[in-house]
Amino acid sequence: MKKWYLVYCQPSKELQAKQNLEQQTYEVYLPRFKRTRRHARRVETILAPLFPRYLFVRMDLEIDRWRSVNGTRGVSYLLVNEERPMEVPEFIIQSLKNRETAEGGVALDTLCMFIKGDAVQITDGAFQGYKAIFERMGDQERVHLLLNFLGRDLNIALPAYAIEAA
């Protein structure tokens, strides 16, 4: 029976690994998201890997020659546990696919674990240790918060990794 497994790729070679695995007739899933990239005074929106250096491959370990995945260009190795590839539950892949937009990227706002009005704790940066109210998820993995600072409500934007549930 075909199941999903996790592949670790060489740096910035996810697309190359995906194409080469597909040429070997494997079903491959590379979740990506829309990201804004700024370079040389230009701003462009690109589809970047949701999990840098990782992709998912679907195969039947009894039929497919799964060890050949490790020799594929762009692949570092297939993640294994006790000499067997690590299985990824189907519901995780399906959940990611259900969140894809028409452009092919995963909608990050649907992956957010907070909803508007949730109390959060700031864990990094100038406001570390303060409590705030979650407003919304922004682009480029930033969150918008309402912070009561010195008796005034401030709207601030922080990296998503800089907050946790209060």
From TrEMBL:
Gene3D superfamilies: NusG, N-terminal domain (3.30.70.940). GO terms for cellular component: cytosol. SUPFAM superfamilies: N-utilization substance G protein NusG, N-terminal domain (SSF82679), Translation proteins SH3-like domain (SSF50104). One of its GO terms (biological process) is transcription antitermination. Keywords: Transcription, Transcription antitermination, Transcription regulation. InterPro entries: NGN-like_dom, NGN_dom_sf, NusG-like, Transcription_antiterm_RfaH, Translation_prot_SH3-like_sf. Residues 1-100 form the NusG-like N-terminal domain. This is NusG-like N-terminal domain-containing protein.
